[in-house]
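Throughout our pipeline, every protein is held as a single compact record rather than as scattered files. This encoding replaces a full spatial description with a residue-level series of whole-number codes. The remainder of this section carries one protein's record, kept here as part of the documentation.
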Amino acid sequence: MDTRTRRRHSESETPAEKSSAGGLPAWLVARGLIPETSPQRAFAAATFVNQIGKGLFISGAALFFTRSVGLPVARVGFALGAAALIGLAAGVPVGHLADRRGPREVFRLAVVVQALAVAGLVFVRAVPSLIVFLCVAELAISAGTAARGPLTRALGAPNPTRYRSYLRALNNIAVGCGALAAGVVVQLDTRTAYVSLVLGTAVMFLLSAAVASRVPSVPPVRAPAEGGRWPALKDKPYVVLTVLDGIMSIQTQVLIFALPLWIIGHTQAPRWFVGASVAVNTALVVCLQVRVSRGVDNNAAAGRTARRAGAAFLLAAALIAVAAGAPGWIAVVVVVLGVIVHTVGELWHSAASFELSFGLAPEHAQGQYSGLFAIGQGLSNAVGPPLLGLVCLGWGEPGWLVMGALFLAVGQAVPLVVNWSDRLRAHQPD
């Protein structure tokens, strides 16, 4: 069934008709609280459980390595960073495997490997073994990300961006649940508690793989005979888009890295407001991500949305910078406004990024392109903290404006890359 046929079929059904097969109340579907189809709900459940495991791990892993295993903080940081960079290498080849063998099968295998690698961390006693297990886990994470992309696109048709936005909102809730559970472990601060956290993470991943078995297999799309094996790496506009999106993805580190340090070290806002600012961001993402994604259903709309995102990031950076010279309560208000504006930009960026990552990729190589696109986002996690520390925290108010201007420039460039890609594809034979 081609895309246009799926679209007509989907549009011909009402939300009540779509939900009746699953026996679920129609209003839950109509309001976007649950996905429309059973496969969508199954994959949403699998990703929700997976992200609970992620929340557990990212919130308690570093403390497990330092306080339970007894490894030095600097070496743990090096192992985590090195493993994350090595893991990026799996994206493109595993994405190619997902295109040829099916994304659901690759996703399930990647999650199982990830679970085994995480479980193996309980046997770590030295840095070399830590690096080995972390590298395997990060390679599996990268593989799962490459496979998750085309699976999300296939299940979410004819509007995969809206479905992806729903998953993103759901994932924020799941990570928060995992983080709360990890907080209990940190409070107990015992070897047994930390081991339980690690094994609990592994169990969540295995449960995710089990739930994913309810997702129907997505058949691969036959590649054209004249195409090369690695079209993603030869697609210049897409490579440029990956770089631009990687730069703009640095914004994800603004609220979780730069802003807390800025509030404590450069403003008169109370220290407790650090957690409150993150809570505001999370609440807005959960409530607005699906709504913001409406209308971002083609490349041109995604390009315009990316442009608006860049402008929002500049305005947010200016507001956060102004907070440095304001009295305590005024600083709180200004930072809240900055967080709200930044979150709006984050929502726009997420919707545009997802639409373009698939809209500019050919049908037969969605996994490979998804793996390439994830490299830019992964590198932003490695580059973001030191860059923001140097520019925003080191240069002060002017540094925030420099970063905001960088995001603005990237946003302005995205529509140009979209037009470039569309022109090249218009001259290619079907």
